[in-house]
Design brief:
binds zinc ion; alpha+beta; 2 domains; about 25% strand; about 35% helix; three-stranded antiparallel β-sheet; five-stranded mixed barrel; about 240 residues; OB fold (Dihydrolipoamide Acetyltransferase, E2P); single chain; elongated; 7 helices
Length: about 240
């Protein structure tokens, strides 16, 4: 077995036996890591608290055949402001849940790791109206699942007639093919910025009806890809 160490964000944990946990993480080099943390549910565990979802850690593991084994954990950033504010916690848990569910196990993608750490740092500094939707649209783009925003996904028509968004078709649809969610021109523009990672342009807009539209469509598009709900994002809003 080989020992490795890596910077990673904790996505999710599961109980295992009496005292252990399985920890799912996204590492800077390896991408998804699944490892057993032994004894962490005992009160005196030295690294139990460092392995909570959302935490950014420096972790050392033995490489295993199915599951790796955590041997050491140091905190890099624990994001206390996110964890102590219910609304930010809901978003933070939604962010790690989407990474856990949407991103494949195959190999590490540093762009996803960087996106994940950046969005958590911004959320730690303060909540912003476009942060969650900006993350979700950018993640879809990085994963090769960007929506088609220039022409109808059914017939290819472009122009002013593109007034609806189809989550199943992953893009705009024209009036003739519309049986989907109405979308404003401003929302199309903001979603395009977000897919390109130009979050600052959206953040400068302030709160508006577009914010609600863009976030609802982002969640609907992610859930259409997953074929199920993102649980944390449907917890009560505060
Ligand atoms: Zn059409």
């Amino acid at each position: 077995m080989a020992l490795y160490s890596e910077h990673a964000v904790v996505l999710r944990t599961w109980k295992l036996g009496e005292a252990d946990r399985i920890v799912s993480m996204y590492g800077a080099q390896s991408g998804k890591i699944r490892a057993v943390a032994k004894g962490v549910r005992k009160t005196r565990s030295k690294f139990g608290a460092r392995l909570e979802p959302i935490s950014y850690i420096d972790v050392q593991c033995w490489k295993g055949r199915d599951l790796d084994i955590v041997t050491q954990v140091e905190s890099i950033e624990l994001f206390p402001a996110i964890k102590s504010d219910l609304e930010r916690l809901r978003k933070g848990l939604g962010i790690v849940e989407v990474i856990e569910e949407l991103v494949g196990d195959s190999s590490g993608d540093f762009e996803i790791f960087r996106l994940l750490v950046r969005v958590l740092r911004r959320l730690e500094q303060g909540d912003s109206h476009y942060l969650l939707s900006g993350f979700l649209w950018r993640l879809l783009q990085v994963e090769g699942l960007a929506p088609q925003l220039e022409s109808c996904v059914e017939c290819g028509e472009d122009g002013e007639g593109l007034t609806q968004f189809s989550t199943s078709g992953s893009g705009l649809v024209c009036r003739a093919h519309g049986n989907s969610v109405p979308i404003s021109r401003d929302a199309v523009k903001v979603i395009a910025w977000m897919c390109e990672g130009e979050l600052n342009r959206a953040l400068s807009l302030g709160d508006s009806v577009v914010r609600v539209e863009v976030e609802a469509l982002a969640v609907a598009q992610i859930e259409s890809q997953l074929n199920h709900k993102v649980k944390a994002l449907h917890l009560p809003s505060y």
